[in-house]
Write a structure and sequence with these properties.
This protein has helices at about 20-30, 40-50, 60-70, 85-115, 125-135, 140-180, 190-200, 210-215, 230-235, and strands spanning about 10-15, 35-40, 75. By secondary structure, the protein is mainly alpha-helical.
Length: about 240
């Protein structure tokens, strides 16, 4: 930053500002600097045109990223992280917790299957598992080991249930802070609204609604009209 002070009018271009360059880009944005995101695909094209190959060096990469920023005026400005980033982090954390809970639940079900005649009931939960385990009377040392493991898994399951519940409470507060109206749409609750806001990061980053549709994968394909005819035997039937 001291080196850059010699240019009062300056702009920073960071390759992959949403990925590996996120930390640097966010530090610059937090300092009030003008920062744009230079996609790696564009810098790779600049490198190919300049050298005719794909050799990479730090100095050459910096030059090619700067060239992209000079000639492309439509690069996305980097905004300082806000509530949308918090929502993305919370939803990603929730996904991790839910996946771990599913794994523990499946493992607990497998252990109870070997302890309870007929196996554990479907739709297993922490409370249902605790009820089942109250009636377990191990006969062998192996069954005693299974019971102890089941107790540990039940404790893990209860902990994960609490963490998922706490995560959703944080998510609810974070969604409320955005003052979004997404939750007024039928069938769109707190978790889904948090995912949409957290991963989209604000619809204003898209030039048009068509760009947004392309980003979400909901843009219809222009397949055109195709004429076809059923086989003769199908028509007769």
């Amino acid at each position: 930053m001291r080196w850059c002070e010699q240019w009062p009018e300056r702009r920073f271009a960071v390759e992959g500002a949403g990925g590996l360059g996120r930390l640097l880009a966010q530090q610059l944005a937090a300092a009030g600097e003008s920062v744009v995101d230079a996609p790696s695909t564009l810098s790779a094209r600049a490198r190919l045109l300049a050298t005719g190959g794909d050799r990479k060096t730090d100095a050459a990469d910096a030059l090619h990223v700067a060239q992209v920023a000079l000639f492309r005026q439509d690069l996305r400005p980097v905004a300082q992280e806000d509530q949308t980033t918090i929502l993305r982090l919370l939803t990603e954390r929730r996904d991790d917790l839910v996946h771990e809970r599913t794994r523990v639940l499946n493992r607990l079900h497998a252990v109870l299957r070997d302890l309870v005649p007929g196996g554990a009931p479907t739709g297993l939960s922490a409370d249902k598992a605790a009820t089942v385990m109250k009636g377990i009377r191990p006969v062998t040392a192996t069954d005693s080991c299974r019971r102890d493991i089941a107790r540990d898994l039940l404790a893990d399951l209860r902990r994960l249930d609490r963490q998922v519940k706490d995560n959703e409470a944080e998510m609810r507060e974070a969604v409320a802070a955005t003052r979004t109206t997404l939750t007024t749409l039928p069938g769109l609750g707190i978790v889904l609204a948090a995912k949409v806001i957290g991963h989209v990061g604000g619809a204003t980053r898209f030039p048009t609604e068509h760009h947004f549709a392309g980003y979400t994968g909901s843009a219809p394909l222009d397949v055109g009209k195709t004429s076809w005819q059923l086989p003769l035997d199908t028509q007769r039937r």
